[in-house]
Specification:
- The two termini are 34 Å apart.
- Helices cover 40% and strands 16% of the residues.
- It is of the alpha/beta class.
- The strands form 2 sheets. It has an 8-stranded mixed beta sheet with strand order 1-4-3-2-5-7-8-9, with helices on both faces. Strands 6-10 form a two-stranded antiparallel ribbon.
Length: 285
């Protein structure tokens, strides 16, 4: 029998609960966009509930940020429905309420998804978890007539290049954009962030889509998230130049096909052999 996965909630800063600061729950906070967002929101006066699978990474980040305000860390695997429920319950027990949900956790699969031992895990993390966490936290936000839900999708939700990963990101866009219209006038703001290629653990080793183009750090996405909390919008694509290929794919998908082949996107990588790989942790791209 497999030993039960350890769970742990750590309160880094001892404060009165609930805190008077706005509280943000960030999933996938142990690296990449989630880690950068934690730093950015801490600077802007937020209390933080940080969640991911790697507790040691979370605690190191929380210790770094603790001087700025309350920080709690909760180890959770959002692929697990029971962990999602526990995450929300523990977050509310720690902070008293959640003012902003940042749906950032995400994974990708190395190589062909159909060779992976558990490809549906990608959908559980990338698509099901944001929907379920939103469902669990939305009623309280609606009752207060105040709250923010920001979901990190991807330019891959505009331009499909990988079947399963793009499916999850197209799904996130549909969920977020539709929910935004459903909640208009409710006091709960819903926004979407669609990053292109940014530097993170997940994108390590990937080359820039255009020769000579510098790949920015995850901080550009974190700043966009913080700006959406203060000035809600339907969607932000970052870096901004990715709006051009996204629009091109919408207007002339056949031309996009030819351009992607010219840039090296082809089926060649599918011919390589290799053992099935599990989804690698990422920051929601």
């Amino acid at each position: 029998m497999t030993a039960p996965r350890p769970t742990r909630t750590t309160q880094i800063t001892r404060t009165t609960t609930p805190t008077s600061r706005p509280v943000a729950l960030i999933t996938g906070a142990s690296s990449g966009i989630g880690e950068a967002t934690a730093r950015e929101l801490s600077k802007r006066g937020y209390a933080l509930v940080l969640s991911a699978r790697r507790l040691e990474r979370l605690e190191a980040l929380a210790s770094e940020l603790a001087g700025a305000g309350p920080v709690w860390v909760i180890r959770a695997d959002v692929a697990d429905p029971a962990d999602r429920t526990r995450l929300v319950a523990e977050a509310l027990a720690c902070a008293g309420r959640i003012d902003a949900l940042i749906n950032n956790a995400g994974i990708n699969i190395e190589g062909a998804w159909w060779r992976d031992a558990d490809p549906s895990r990608l959908l559980r993390v990338n698509l099901e978890a944001p929907i379920e966490l939103t469902r669990l936290l939305l009623p309280a936000m609606l009752a207060r007539r105040n709250g923010s839900i920001i979901t990190v999708a991807s330019v891959a939700g505009h331009m499909a290049t990988e079947g399963l990963y793009s499916a999850s990101k197209f799904g996130l866009r549909g969920f977020s954009l539709g929910l935004r219209r459903q909640l208009r006038g409710s006091g709960v703001n819903v926004s979407l962030v669609s990053p292109g290629l940014v530097r993170s653990e997940m994108t390590e080793g990937m080359r820039s889509p255009l020769p000579g183009l510098k790949v920015p750090g995850a901080e550009v996405v974190a700043v966009a998230i913080a700006q959406l909390l203060s000035r809600p919008k339907r969607e932000r694509i970052v870096p901004g130049w990715y709006r051009v290929p996204a629009l091109l794919d919408a207007l002339a998908p056949g031309l996009t096909d030819k351009l992607l082949v010219g840039l090296g996107f082809s089926t060649a990588s599918l011919q390589s052999s290799g053992s099935p790989s599990s989804g690698s942790p990422s920051s929601g791209r």
